[in-house]
Amino acid sequence: MLQPTRRRARRGFTLIELLLVMVIIAVLAAVVLPNFSGKGEQARIDSVKAQISIFANSLSVYEIDNGAYPSTAQGLQALRAKPSGAPEPRNWKRPYLERDIPLDPWGNAYVYRSPGTKNADGYDVLSVGPDGREGTEDDIGNW
User: Fold this and answer.
1) In terms of pTM, does the model score above 0.85?
2) pLDDT tens track for 77-94
3) Which of the residues 5, 70, 103, 120 has an alpha carbon 20 to 30 A from that of 15?
4) 8-state DSSP, 133
5) What SS3 class is residue 126?
6) Which domains are assigned to the chain?
7) Coil, strand, or helix at residue 54?
8) Is 56 within 8 Å of 123 (Cβ atoms)?
9) Distance CA 35, CA 32 (A)
10) Could you give the C-alpha distances from 92 to 52, 80, 84, in angstroms and in order?
11) By the 8 A CB rule, do 55 and 76 touch?
12) What whole-number distance in Å separates Cα of residue 84 and Cα of residue 139?
């Protein structure tokens, strides 16, 4: 009498199956990755605009409390610690920002001027942008 042969349970994948999965992943990557190119730079620009908006809100509250914006010399640090010098803050109540002044996404300090060159009646806050040089077309400011 012949004994029926048993087949072993298949374990693992064949080379063809693995190659097919790799081809599918490559095709998906070729379709998806171009959609994300350039998004990182746009995200950094959007981050700068949001940070400048936070500075603007804090500077408005500072001006309401103290009657004037901080001077250029006092800088944005006046939003974190009571500044000395003119204009003397009349009613500095608290830190106007919860955290320290950050660098922009390219590692540069934000520039603050009061009175501003673009906003003569107020102030300028700007990031020098990706090139790190002020006065170029990639500067991002509150104007």
Assistant:
1) no
2) 999 999 998 899 989 988
3) 5
4) -
5) strand
6) 44-132 (3.30.700.10)
7) helix
8) no
9) 6
10) 21, 10, 11
11) yes
12) 30
